[in-house]
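Title: Prediction job returns without error message
Component: structure pipeline
Severity: low
Priority: P3
Assignee: unassigned

Description:
Job completed but the reporter wants confirmation the result is attached to the right record. Sequence as submitted:
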Amino acid sequence: MTARTTRRTTAAPSRIAAVGAIAVAGALILTGCGDQTKNDSGNSSASTSSAPLADKLPKAIRDAGVIKVGSDIAYAPVEFKDSSGKVVGIDPDLAAAMGKQLGVKFDFQNGTFDTLLTGLRSKRYDMAMSAMTDTKDRQEGVDSDTGKKVGEGVDFVDYFTAGVSIYTPKGKTQDIKTWADLCGKKIAVQRGTVSEDLAKSESKKCTGGKKIAIEAYDNDQQAQTRLRGGGADAGSSDFPVAAYAVKTSGGGKDFEIVGDQVEAAPYGIAVAKSNTQLRDALQAALDAIIKNGEYDKVIAKWGVDAGAVKTAVVNGGK
C-alpha cells in the first residue's frame, strides 16, 4: 500500500461562506470523534491520543501512516495468504498490534526471501519482517557462504525464537534423525535460509563422497511440493513452519518431523542501520505489546508459545 495524495478542489468565491460553515461543523464533528484520523491511503489509523508511541516514528512515516514491510508471504504460519487472499499469520498479527501503539498500518509487500535485505537497502521497504533469523553476518552485511562483505548490514529488533527442523514424507524417514544422517540424501529447502546454510555446512562434513544434495527454491511451499512429490528425501524449515506443514499438508498425512530442532535463534525485524529512529520505535512498540498482553495473545493463537520472548532486544543474534 503506497501513500496517495488526497485531491482537494477549491471552492468558488460565491460559496466561501457555505464552505466556512461546513468547516466549522466538520471541526465540531472531529472534536467529538478525535480518536480516528485518515492516513493518505484512506485507511483509518489511530491518532496520537490513542497511539501512545506515534511520536517516536520518523516524521515521513508518521505523516504517511504506513510502514512498508518486505516479506516472503509463503511461510505459514509466520506469514501467508488465506483462502481469500488476505495476508495472515504470526508476523502480520504482531505488526497489527504494534501498529496500534504507533498509529500506523503495516503494509506487507511480497518478495522472495533472499531479496528482502536488498530491497531494504534500496529503500523499497522500510523494514523486513519474514521469520528472518538475526545473525551477526546479516548485522554486518556479510555473505555467510563466502565471508565477504556484500552490502550494508542491518539492525534487528528481535521478537521470537525458533530453531530449525527436518521433516520427511510420513512413514519414509529412512532413519533420518540428525543432519549427519542426510549425507548421501537429497534435501529441499528455501534459498537464503538458515536451513540452506545448515545443509551446506553439514554436507562439508560428510565422508566417503556422500555429500548432501541440496535443492533450493524461492519459497518454502515450492520445497514442500518437491518433497511431497517424491523429489527429495527430506525438507527443512524453521520449527513453527515445519510443524504447521506436518499438521496441515494432506490433512496431516504427508509429512512428519524427525529429530529435534537445532540452532535456536531469534527472529528479527530488519531495519536499515541508518534508520535508528524507526528501529527504536519498533522496539518500543514491541515492548509495549509484550507488557499489555497483546503479544501473548498472538503467540497463543498460533500455538507457538515456546518461542515467545519476554522483552524486545536489538541485535541479539550471534
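Comment from assignee: result matches the submitted record. The radius of gyration is 23 Å.
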